[in-house]
Every structure is written in structure tokens, then in C-alpha cells.
Input
Amino acid sequence: MQFVLIIMLGYKRLHFMKKQIIALYGTANSGKSTTLRKLYDLLIKAYPKAHIEIIHPVGVDFTVIIEIDGVLIGIESQGDPGSRLDDSIKIFKKRGCVIIVCCTRTRGSTVVIVEALRPEFTITWHHKIAGQDDDKMAQTILKQIRDAIGA
Output
């Protein structure tokens, strides 16, 4: 398990963070991307001063990096087989994202891509089922992010 030292001069605090992946998995059309769009909206409302780098514009699927209190969070909503998930994770790692939030299917290549990041990243899996409350799942992931960054 790898830790990242975050030094925040404006806040004068030292914070050791575990690198984390929060992966939302489910079948096609189960609401994974919708949930991550709702999470994105919650993050920008909760942290209006956050710096946002849009890599792929927010639409049906999107890729962004959000900086909150010096912590980089990468979000990739495209998690279908053959999608850009692998490329996005490489970008997030290169840019120094400590938290990565992504979608995968229930098994197969996208799950393998995420699992390959152990032990560098701790992985938390959230199962998304069609008809499940997207807002509630987005709130759960938001809480996990807040707990991780101490905000």
C-alpha cells in the first residue's frame, strides 16, 4: 500500500493519504455513468473553489480531474470494454491523482484494469444495480471522498 504526503501550506497541515480507487461496477445501462455525473455535480457544489480540468467534456460519459484542498481526484465515467478507462487511469496516475473514481462492468477487461492497480491503490467496489437510487449512491461516494481528504 502506498501513501502520499500532502502538504498544504495555506492550511498548514500534513496529511498522509492512501491512494484509493472507488470503482462503481455493474451491467450495461445500470446507471453507473449517471451516478458519476451526479457525484460530479455534488463535488462542484460542495467545493465551488475546486480547480476542475476537463479532459473529456461532461456529457453521457466524461473524464475530469478535480483538485480539492491540494488533493487530485480523477473521475472516469466510461467503463465499457474497449473504452478509454485504461488511458484515463494512466493519465490520472501521471498527474498524481490520489483518488480515482471510475466505472467498470461486473467482470472482464475493465475489472482487470482496476485490479491491476493493487497494491499501489486500495480499491473499494460499489455495486450499481439498475433501478437503484443514483442520488444515494453518489452521496455514498461523496462521503467516502470527504472522509479520505479530511474535508
Remarks:
- The first helix runs from residue 32 to 46.
- The helical segments are 32-46, 85-95, 109-115, 134-149.
